[in-house]
Amino acid sequence: MQQVYQYIVLRNVSYGKYSTKYGCDYQLTATTMHHTDRGCTGDLSRPKTVTESMLLSSGNSVQHGAGKPDSDEDQGQVTVTSFTMQVAGHVYGKKDKKQGMLHLGEGLILKALQDPPRGARELQFYQRVFSPTNTDEVTMALRRFMPAYHGTMEFDGVGFLKLENIVEHYTQPCIADVKMGKVTSDPHATPEKAAYEKSKCPSAAILGFQISGMMIYQRDTGQYERVDKIAGHKLTTDNMISEGIGKFFGYPKAIRKDVIEILLSKLLDLQYWFTSQRQYSFYGSSLLIVYEAFICDKDTSSGQSSSSSQSKTCNATVSSTSKNQGSSESNCQSATCSETLPKIDVRMIDFAHVFSTPAEDSNYLHGLTNLIQHLRLLLEFES
Prior knowledge:
- With 383 residues, the chain is α+β, with helices and mostly antiparallel strands.
- The protein has ten helices and 18 strands.
- Strand 6 and strand 7 form a beta hairpin.
């Protein structure tokens, strides 16, 4: 079931960066909320009525980066839905928590800002990287590795980042959230917090990365297989290939080496950035990896694409994944046999624990290097 909110801004409002001053009231125009079924149990399966006022602001005074700024066009009806393509992290509305992500449409998602100082730290990092006045080559180089930042927005009494939806133009997206670093707790964490984070995934101390969640499209069934953080944290150095990162890329029978080769080139580029920069250290940050599982069927007898076969595949895809904000009929129509390169993307996400440092970020770099080595092993495997 889809979680849908509709609301109207009664009149304009301006606000600051993080601490918002509200200048007007807002009215909820549709109060019925249904949670999307993501394989969870409990309250998520029951309709819930929202009676509190929903808050929205246009963000005209917020600093914007490379993305489009908010405008008066935002002062109309807006629809926010649950983000069904999320594979890790907090789920918005679960157990009444106002954390996680929502889908805004038009290629954008909303990510709830955490309580200070984490939320403020992440917002400031996005603003610094995507500021139009930014001239620092180190941070400017990060833009191609991050979701584009489009300002902020207030909703449901919570401040949100407006970010690029990385999976928007995929037909059958396979998605993995890979948390980076031997140590995921930041320098300000208490000894108890640091020990707890370490205990959740013991293998991360060796590998330098851990699987926080995966969503893998199975072509034989036309369904998605999900791997949650509990299963991901149980992966070890012995089965990370067979049950973890290798499984994500089709190990052992149909390894997507075409995708892995492109991903490796992107990760090597990111690795070079980390080896050369001496400004930031990243804790609890992840790599979001997305690739297109859709493969256009070929008519081997004629050497031409089979339009009927592709049409059937597209129709099935649209009907089965139309609820996912990364899929649409237009996307399916664009996935033609004329495409020569597989669609693959990787972005850094989660910046609530970014700190200034004059040293190399060896913690993150260790995990990135090991991840690259695992991908190279997959390329050598004969499927």
